[in-house]
Amino acid sequence: MQITEIYKSLQGESSYTGLPCIFVRLTACNLRCSWCDSEYTFTGGKKMTAEHVEAEVQRLSAANCKLVEITGGEPMLQEREVVPLMQSLVGSGFEVLLETSGERPLDKVPAEVVKIVDVKCPHSGAANSFRESNLKTLHPRDEIKFVLSDRTDYEFARDFVRRHDLSKQVANIILSPAFQKDASGRGSTAQCLIDPKELTQWMLEDGLQARLGIQIHKFIWDPSLKGV
Ligand code: SF4
Predict the structure, then answer these.
(1) How do residues 132-179 score in pLDDT, each as one tens digit?
(2) Does any ligand 1 atom lie closer than 6 A to the CB of residue 29?
(3) Structural contact between residues 139 and 112, judged by C-beta atoms closer than 8 angstroms
(4) How wide is the angle at C-alpha 83 spanned by C-alphas 82 and 85, nearest 5°?
(5) 33 alpha carbon to ligand 1 midpoint, in Å?
(6) Is the distance from the beta carbon of residue 74 to the nearest atom of ligand 1 less than 6 Å?
(7) What is the pLDDT of residue 228?
(8) Which atom belonging to ligand 1 lies closest to the Cα atom of 126?
(9) Region of poorest pLDDT, from 29-38, 139-148, 211-220
(10) Alpha-carbon distance 122 to 63, whole Å?
(11) Residue ranges of the alpha helices (H) in 7-78?
């Protein structure tokens, strides 16, 4: 499979935020989100077999890190190779997270893998890319995430959650302010496209059963850094 990078860091998003995690970042994406911070994954990378990827994960896990996130790009573009890799990692005792847009079918993802599905909102530029049949593949431990850049995106997310009764299907629904695309320097909430305070107020007003998600890695390290 085509791999952009494999590294260990802290999990910056999802309900696993703050935990040590090994990231396997696959190359290529079929979407072009306006606020994407992973454009360097669109091309390049290097070919690695699933065995080589797992060996590198095992090496990085030597300090007892058993959490792995498969991400990209869009990892499910390489379904044929990535599904056996996830199966093998689960079999080796890792807790495996899959970060995906939900545009590709998710029915082959092993049940033990926690899917973190990033449903694209209108101002991502990839609106309507989510494959609704994937809702049937959700397990209670899976997570649905919406990255928001304005009130229209918020209302889309809120209505999507209500229409599909998502809080009955998954434990965590995460609303996350999009970060300025080329932000650098010291990360601050001023670089979020929606003020988290304003988003919090909307969530409370609407009584939305969702969690506010802040990308903590953008605050720990320079937001322009890769591989952290
Ligand atoms: S799906 Fe992810 S990697 Fe692909 S363009 Fe959107 S944010 Fe970037």
Answers:
(1) 999 999 999 999 999 999 999 999 999 999 999 999 999 999 999 998
(2) yes
(3) no
(4) 60
(5) 5
(6) yes
(7) 74
(8) 6
(9) 211-220
(10) 41
(11) 50-60
Percentage of the chain modeled with pLDDT above 90: 86
Q: Give the model confidence (pLDDT) of 5-28 as tens digits.
A: 999 999 999 999 999 999 999 999
Question: If you count DSSP H runs as helices and E runs as strands, how many of each does the chain have, helices first?
Answer: 5, 9
33 lines ligand 1 (CB under 6 A): yes
C-alpha span between 225 and 227 (Å, rounded): 7
Helix axes 196-206, 151-163, angle to 10 degrees: 30
**Is residue 101 within 6 Å of ligand 1 at its C-beta?**
yes
Q: Counting Cβ atoms within 10 Å, is residue 75 exposed (0-12), middle (13-18) or buried (19+)?
A: buried
